[in-house]
Every structure is written in C-alpha cells, then in structure tokens.
Amino acid sequence: MSSRVVMGVLAGLLASTTLVVVAAEEAADEAADEAADETPGETRFEIPPLVTNPENLISTGAPEYRYITATRGQEVLFRYALRGARYKPYVQQFATPSGFNVLSDAPPDHPHHHGLMFAVGVDDVDFWAEKETPGRQVVRTVKEDVYENTGRLSITHVLDWFSGDNRTFLARENRVVILGADLVPNARVLVWQTQLAPPAGRDSIKLWGHHYFGLGMRLAEAMDRNGTFLAEGGSEGQVIRDDERLRPGKWCAYVAPAGGKHVTVAMFDHPLNERRALWFTMAKPFAYLAASLNLHQKPMTVKQGETLSLIYGVAAWDGQQSAETIQETYDGWLKAVVVDPNI
Fold it and tell me: Mind listing the domains of the chain with CATH numbers?
C-alpha cells in the first residue's frame, strides 16, 4: 500500500491559542554538527489562532534544519531531532497539555534509546542498537507544513537507510510525523507514518528484530518502575522475560505518577497496518512502550515494488485516565486520520 496520512479538519481547535514553530538550523561544518552542547540558530514561524481558509499553511523546504520545535509561549509542545541526531531522526520531546515531557533521550543505561524512534533490522544491519557500526537513517529531503487553521505541524521527509560503513543502501523510508496540538480534548496527540521499501536495484529486503523492535518510546525517568499498563480489552499478554510482556490490542497505555501527579501515555495502532502491533511493555527497571512488529518470531520480506506501510498514534494526558477515556480518544484519533491512497 502506498499512501500518506493527512489530518481531518476538526472545528474549534486552537480557537484561543497561538502556536510557534521553531526550526533550528544545522551548523555549517561537520564538527559543529557533532557538538552535543551547541545551540544552533533559529527561524521562527508565528502561527495565529483559527483562520478562515482551511488550506492556509506555511510550508518550508529547508533540509538544513537540525531540530524542529513547536512551542506555545515558553512551553515546548514537541521537538523533533531531524539532523541533530547521529544515527536516526526521532521525536525528542512530547509534552502533556500541562507541559510535562513524557520522553527520555539517551539515558545512561541505554544511550541508544531516543525518545520516540522507529528502527528495525534490515538484512544483516541493526538500526536499533548503536554498537560498533550501526545502521544510519540519512535525511535526504524534508518538508515542513504548518496549518494555520488548526495549528498542526506536519514533517514529511525521505530517509535512506545505509549500513554503518555507508557502503550499502538498504532501504528507503517515506516518513510523515504530524503534531495535532489539540486534536482531541484534554490530550496531546501525534501521528507517525512510515513507508519502508527496497531501493531501486535491490530485489528485496529482510526485516528482522528483537521482541521490542518497531516504533519505540522510552518514557521519562520520573515514570519508571511505579506505573501500570493498560491494553485494549484488558489483556495481560505474554511474559517474555522479567517485567517484559507482549500484549495484543488496538491501543496500549501506561499510567504513572510523575512530579507529584499522574501522567498517562498511549500508543494507537491503525487498522490499515499490514501487520498489527504487539505492544512491548516494561515498567522495571525503566518504563518502555513499543509497537512491536513481532519480527523476532516472524521476520518479513519486502520485495521490490512492495512497501511496508505503518500508521501509529501517540497521546499524552495529564492525570490518570481510564480505559474508557483512552478508547474514546483512540476512536477520535481514528476518525481524524484520513489516509489518501493517491499520494
């Protein structure tokens, strides 16, 4: 299936707010690109409240951006590491409506855990771990669209997946990440779409992985150990080892105390996905949630001319949300996601 996700128009969103999108520019030289503490320059786009033209948008095609950040006032809603990451682009920050960032990036125990990231093994190359010569997801093109009528930010980019020595072009990915600042009531929601295929000249690719490979989310340190997972239908799933489980369902959520209050985070599976998610969950010694593709039991072969197409959602709330609320949010997200098969 070849398709692109767009967001349905929901009336009344962002009626009294202003969204600012910050695109941080990439430093000119390679040494600066690898400097972890460098603060790059910024280009700001002021997005006003609701406007009348539903097609009104600001579009930039600037591949030099290192980071793309959405803020409201002083609050960071979302930050995407585009070229500011060594091995793969990923969502570095994603906040609840009150501003609590639910993601952790490169923690000391697993420095290859980067916020919300997508990675699998391709042929004999591991794109998940970062040992020795890991695979690299290289940004080729990027387009950022900011829709003024809703305040939604869309990042569309093409990634070339190379072996660690840069000699083998293994796969091409079309990725769309959409932040719906207020897509559903009382929650922040984003959409992640990946289309992965063999590049021209390659007959097929074999996708493989451990039981947690796929779209994975390392949660904030404050959420470690003391939380509870909820899956659609209440399934406890299969124990893999220790606290690690694989759970079926249309969605899976984690509820945990953090900073003197509770926070809820959920991931959503789309019914059009060619392989349904098995939710990898663990709360101890750290909290992790992933849309696993079950590649440890069933590796996939994608042939030339075929595409693996995946669509997921992520939602973050303040407070302890019930299974009923999460289901309602999932249903609202599903209605708001429109798949255009002609793009």
Answer: 92-340 (2.70.98)
